[in-house]
Amino acid sequence: VQLVESGGGLVQPGRSLRLSCVGSGFTFSSYVMRWYRQPPGKGRELVAGISNTGDITNYADSVKGRFTISREPAKNTVYLQMNSLKPEDTAVYYCFAINILTARSSWGQGTQVTVSS
To answer: Mean pLDDT, the chain, as a whole number?
Structure first.
């Protein structure tokens, strides 16, 4: 299982970014996909998750209404659309995959998101 994130960067407050995570080496449709983040000096926290079929999503309270997780099976890709970004969204964002039957899991390498004026 390999996960590669992209799309991070420096953005001003109130602007948007879209993160992408491309998976390879596994059957994408058998994995729940999640985005986690780790702010500077803090622990890793769950941001959003999406079921293997794409019909169920969940979000941290801090991002509800601003972030949207989605998946594109044809591209083995999961996205995190982040709108109305705030300085407190600054973190390294990680993609995570977990198999619905075996619980085998994998992490991406992370992508830095910095929200600052």
So the answer is: 97
